[in-house]
UniProtKB/TrEMBL annotation:
This is ATP phosphoribosyltransferase. Pfam families: HisG (PF01634). Belongs to the ATP phosphoribosyltransferase family. Short subfamily. Keywords: Amino-acid biosynthesis, ATP-binding, Cytoplasm, Glycosyltransferase, Histidine biosynthesis, Nucleotide-binding, Transferase. The gene is hisG. Lacks the C-terminal regulatory region which is replaced by HisZ.
Amino acid sequence: MITMALAKGRIYQETLPFLAAAGIYPVEDPEKSRKLMIATNRDDLRIVVIRATDVPTYVQYGAADIGVCGWDTLYEHGGNGLFIPVDLQIAKCRMSVAAPNGLDYDGLVRRGGRIRIATKFMKWARDYFAQQGVHVDLIKLYGSMELAPIAGLADAIVDIVATGATLKANNMREVRQIAPISSRLIVNQISMGLKRVELSPIIENIRKASNKND
Ligand SMILES: Nc1ncnc2c1ncn2[C@@H]1O[C@H](COP(=O)(O)OP(=O)(O)OP(=O)(O)O)[C@@H](O)[C@H]1O
Ligand SMILES: O=P(O)(O)OC[C@H]1O[C@H](OP(=O)(O)OP(=O)(O)O)[C@H](O)[C@@H]1O
């Protein structure tokens, strides 16, 4: 049996064409069903539907053999025990530093004082500011990062930006782009050895479908 970990929402819909390319069709729509484990047209392949941030954890520990998750989530997780064979080029966005329109972010950086950053991406923020030599105090949040500067909790945020609409609606702007983000196919390294015969064709068909989109 092969178990695939997928998250509801953005990534799920964009992943379906890649599953179809590998001959995999879920029998139910997880957006409509309350079921957390979904069968597919293949007796030997099932899908577990979990939070986006839990996908790398399920695959790392082998509770799922294969999964799809954003590079933002994957980098934050650390990638232990994971093989990352394909960039699907879906759910594209970027990791950025954003600040209120009224804040002189460049001046703040130049003066070398400590900057208060709110984020749910602690590793991204820690690594980025360390590499830039910028002193920061990080404040961990679990959502609505854009509220933190408005409410006076932080000077700036590290978060995902796609269209920029959320920043604009909250009188903020992108002041630095940290990295482009897209979703990746991830595979448990031990499964890759033990279930190579079953997993290889799935990975190769998904890889071919992603090359066609280039
Ligand atoms: N606005 C966006 N536009 C495009 N892709 C995005 C956007 N926001 C997030 N993503 C990508 O889609 C992935 C899943 O996002 P989604 O909103 O479904 O989950 P999440 O809310 O970040 O995770 P969780 O539900 O575990 O908190 C993210 O990891 C990221 O790679
Ligand atoms: O640039 P935009 O197109 O406006 O997209 C950016 C927004 O998308 C993400 O939030 P999401 O909608 O996933 O909400 P969540 O973080 O609460 O899950 C992110 O945290 C931003 O708030």
